[in-house]
Write a structure and sequence with these properties.
By secondary structure, the chain is α/β, with parallel strands linked by helices. It has 6 helices and 5 strands, in the order E-H-E-H-H-E-H-E-H-H-E. The chain is globular and about 50 Å long.
């Protein structure tokens, strides 16, 4: 049924909840998991401040890489503890929706957490999950997080 499952993560509690569901499903089906962390492109607003950005760009990039590596290491440790075969992939400075949809082509299922934002929060922050649903042909399992579960 599912041999290869993609689980994008951003290191949030909501992503961790999706990882938990993915681990359970992989234990049942014997699927291999791929954890994906996409470091989003630097916003144009920061690029407009080129001088100030240049002063911090190397440190910012390193901090983003460290956050990605920590999230992937945590997910891989959970998979190991659960006895599930898994790998981690880091994509740097890309659009998350495009990167996830592209990686999804190589998988049978995508499992993502959703914060369930509405109103201004959704307008400002957008919805990566909704974008992946529109862009990807791969089935998507959405794990909804309640406000109490979000840190």
């Amino acid at each position: 049924m599912y041999d290869k499952i993609l689980i994008p993560t951003d290191g949030s509690d909501c992503s961790d909840k999706a990882i938990g569901h993915g681990l359970e499903l992989a234990q049942i089906t014997g699927a291999t998991l791929t954890f994906l962390y996409v470091i989003e492109s630097i916003p144009p607003v920061m690029m407009a401040e080129a001088y100030n950005y240049a002063m911090y760009s190397e440190q910012l990039a390193e901090d983003l890489r460290n956050a990605a590596d920590q999230a992937l290491e945590s997910a891989l440790a959970q998979a190991k503890q659960a006895g599930v075969e898994a790998e981690g992939k880091r994509v740097e400075f890309a659009r998350p929706i495009n990167s996830i949809a592209e990686q999804a082509r190589e998988h049978d299922l995508v499992i993502m957490g959703s914060h369930g934002r509405t109103g201004m929060g959704r307008i400002i922050l957008g919805s990566v999950t909704e974008g992946v649903l529109r862009e990807s042909q791969t089935p998507l399992l959405v794990v909804r997080c309640t406000k109490d579960e979000q840190a």
